[in-house]
Amino acid sequence: MKRVLLALLLVAFHASADTLFVVNKGDATLALVDPVAMKVTAKVRTGDTPHEVAVSGDGKIAVVSNYGTEETPGTTLTVVDVAAKRELRRFVLPGLSRPHGIQSAGSRFYLTVEGSLAVARYDAGANLIDWVGGTGQDMTHMLVVTRDEKKIYTANIVSNSVSVLDLRHTPQYVGLKQIAVARAPEGIDLAPDGSALWVAGVARRDEPARISVIDPKTSAVVRSIPITARLANRLKFSPDGSRVALSDPGMNEVSIFDASTGEVIKRIATAMTPTGIVFSPDGKRLFVSCEGAGKVQVIDTALWSVIGEIATGAQPDGLAYAQN
């Protein structure tokens, strides 16, 4: 009996330790989810049509990019106190619009500002934008930042390119390089060891959809992987770097690739319109937001099968995971 009680206590403790963050575009909320119990623990109001979310390194602050409506471009970030489960403040971007992709580095948050053809850095501790770098590319949508914060890679949907912003130069001069990649690139991620950047695009008349693999050392495309996806939406490496997940809202499935060979090892049918994806830090779970179904599905990575789901709100999209 004591062993059973101890096991239950351990499960309860673990269930309360981690938080899955889910942005709901349709009802303008951020859902805080217990990923073990698979239930929503709180909802926080955001700005209009939020798209993405990132969490500070210590797990205390979450920042949501408020993209805005078709008629009114968004110009704010919602800053959330995770422990209190409430909005801490609504930060107004200075002269920048359409915030979208976002990634944290400690208490700093790098974000694309699509309407301004740029990337910005929000310092949550100081509550200010302390750096802005232009890409000069159309629809700078998603981004990935290297762990040392020396380089930023952005996927530019309309320009069919990846911008490389090299921050090793002085603040007055940032190195900028454009790399031609697969058409309409959106899903983008860097291997955990920094050895490869994968960027997913859609099909053209004369060629299938493909993933462009970039060597970060040379900033050149070194490999092209044909894919069957109709809409290559989000792409994520597993924490150990051995697998890559790609969401396809056009086919209602998630494809799992072998990172070394580029071969598809599994196609997983999901609920309607899979978009955002995130792995748990231990790599044992993959969470997929299904926008059309209003829920997040949970995939066991040992079996590569759906083992549960969570109703989070209207049109769930961007995801983030914090381990406390």
Short note summarizing the structure:
With 324 residues, the chain is mainly beta. It contains one helix and 28 strands.
Overview of this structure, please?
The structure is a single chain. The chain is mainly beta. Helix content is 5%, strand content 54%. The chain contains one helix and 28 strands. The protein has a four-stranded antiparallel sheet. A four-stranded antiparallel sheet has the order 4-5-6-7, with no helix packed on it. The longest helix is centred in the N-terminal third of the chain and has 16 residues, at 2-17. It is globular, with a radius of gyration of 19 Å. The two termini are 29 Å apart. Residues 4-15 have low confidence and may be disordered.
Bin the strand percentage. Answer: over 45%
- Order of helical and strand elements: HEEEEEEEEEEEEEEEEEEEEEEEEEEEE
Share of residues in helices = under 10%
Number of helices: 1
Low-confidence stretches: 4-15
What's the main sheet like? 4 strands, antiparallel
Over the alpha carbons, how many angstroms does the gyration radius reach? 19 Å
What integer is the average pLDDT? 93
As laid out across the biggest beta sheet, the strand order is: 3-2-1-28
Class computed from helices, strands and strand pairing: mainly beta
Q: Overall 3D geometry? A: globular
- β-strand number: 28
